[in-house]
Amino acid sequence: MDDIDQKTLDHMCRLGKIDLSDEEKPKMLKSLEGILDYTHELDALILENAMPCRHVLKGIALPLREDEPKEPLTREAFLKNAPDQTGGMVRIPPTLTE
Amino acid sequence: MHTLTAIQLRDRFLEGAVTAEEIASYFLERIDRFDPEIGAFLHVLKERTLEKARLLDQKKKEGKPLGKLAAIPIGVKDNIHIEGVPTSCASKFLEGYTATFSATVCDLLEEEDALLIGKLNLDEFAMGSSNENSAFKPVKNPWNTRCVPGGSSGGSAAAVAARLCPIALGSDTGGSIRQPASFCGVVGFKPTFGRVSRYGLVAFGSSLDQIGPITTCAEDAALVMEVIAAHCDLDATSLPEEKADYLPALKKPLKGTVIGVPWHFLESLSPEILDNFKTSIKTLEELGCKTLEVNLDVLKYSIAVYYILSTAEASTNLAKFDGVRFGKRSKKASTLDEIYRFSRSEGFGAEVKRRILLGTYILSAGHKDDFYVKAQKVRSEIIKHFDAAFSCCDIICLPTSPIPAFEMGALQDPLQMYLQDIYTIPMSLAGLPTAAMPSGFTQDSKPLGIQFIAPQTFDIEALRIAHHYQNAAPFSREIPPAFNKEAL
């Protein structure tokens, strides 16, 4: 089955925000082709009356917690892992350019 | 001390035979001496552990009540947060990242006076079945260091097998606790989905992930479950029940327990693995169990379903790694879009990229019905078939893996690697509690394993049968010869 070609892979890379090198592309394409081909095993099943599984736990009502505010992560703790920061904010390149 | 179970170790501490600091020092020395041979640990928390051990000794001296896990060193898979400690997920993307909060499970363990001794190696972002996908170093199997320990919780299983710590936490999405436990000859338990909080576990597949214990005996796994299996307000998929007593329930006799075996589903097993499995079933019959055949042929579709659903969920979960707020930010990037693309491309390994791209494709316009919705329907069918089987039996048994631990580099084709998860994936799809126990060895001394599967929420039952099986077939007590010695 031809689910995926180079053009489709390039589109998935754009959607997934992943760049592949010229060396990575053919290997990745081949492995994805093989895996997607395998998933077509499911085509053999008759699923007209099957319902999609929305939640794996059956017949169990999961409780919601009380709507009470709790202490959030502090700005200081959050910024400890920020790659670039200024004035208590994460810094990124401008998103609007001329 | 390395031959003791966690419960025996704790009891020695409580009796005053050994201090918490002595226990901590002993295992830290073992890690120092033996871990270079297997690469199980990514971070060893030496000072933190010794400090907590000293505080625990003081607490004991003052006569204060001590926790259920007092002085037990526990390793934590490095996709589970401990505040102030690195969490790398074995990825270059998170190299240098420090956790800003602790996972619920880690808080619960420390409330019961456990000593969290280090962060354990894994396949990057828990994606893998051999621990060859760690960005930093592979893990070696203590039974045969040319072989993989399994994955993705390879570090956790290897550390317990080599007796570098008596307990480790792993995470299981498609078999990542159970398969490495089997490859390393130790006990691994995957709880019912929702039984253990996922708060603080870096998400891979949110409808599949569960944290669970890897130990050297079923009692130790039961003890850990008494501590970590409880409702958590911070996990929207957390079961409502509070903590329960697991240990007393282990003793209830097995006589009359009905075991379901899907023999037809096992027809392609190699003779050696099938013989080992049949021997285990005979052991259960000698313990008073009845066995009957159940039809679970539908499980042959599990791998296709899993690699559609888990990669779809993973592509969403890993979208947060964008180089903006934390983690790797590429130095080559000069626009926001380049930050996203370059950081992710430089930070993620090949297997992670493969699963993100696969998941992106599956969820993309025009493909969702063909793949994702179809897989969700088959998932429902798999759950229905398990329900039908459990209507006539109490426990279902399967081998843990169709093959024992393989040599590093032996499985290069990703699909071939995925196909080895055939006996663990189904229970992840159905959210079923499953105990993986050592069941013997191959002719060339590689561990083998069997799984005991219970209906949803019957976690105690899975551990109970595991405990009785282990008493009759104590393979989990075997220690790899190279590590069955003192560090000094």
Q: What's the SSE blueprint?
A:
The complex is a heterodimer of chains A (98) and B (488).
Chain A: H1 6-16, H2 24-39, H3 75-79, E1 85-86, E2 89-90
Antiparallel strand pairs in A: 1-2
Chain B: H1 6-15, H2 20-38, E1 41-44, H3 46-61, E2 73-77, H4 104-111, E3 115-120, H5 154-161, E4 167-172, H6 178-184, E5 187-190, E6 210-215, H7 218-228, E7 258-261, H8 271-286, E8 290-293, H9 302-317, H10 336-347, H11 350-363, H12 369-390, E9 395-399, H13 414-419, H14 425-429, E10 434-441, E11 447-453, H15 459-472
Parallel strand pairs in B: 2-3, 2-4, 7-8, 7-9
Antiparallel strand pairs in B: 1-3, 4-6, 5-6, 5-10, 9-11, 10-11
Tell me what you see in this structure.
The complex is a heterodimer of chains A (98) and B (488). Chain A has 98 residues and is mainly alpha-helical. Chain A contains three helices and two strands; from the N terminus they run αααββ. The longest helix of chain A is centred in the N-terminal third of the chain and has 16 residues, at 24-39. Chain B has 488 residues and is of the alpha/beta class. Chain B contains 15 helices and eleven strands. Chain B has helices at 6-15, 20-38, 46-61, 104-111, 154-161, 178-184, 218-228, 271-286, 302-317, 336-347, 350-363, 369-390, 414-419, 425-429, 459-472, and strands at residues 41-44, 73-77, 115-120, 167-172, 187-190, 210-215, 258-261, 290-293, 395-399, 434-441, 447-453. The model of chain B has no long low-confidence stretch (mean pLDDT 97). Classes of the chains: A mainly alpha (98), B alpha/beta (488). The interface between A and B is large, with 54 and 74 residues.
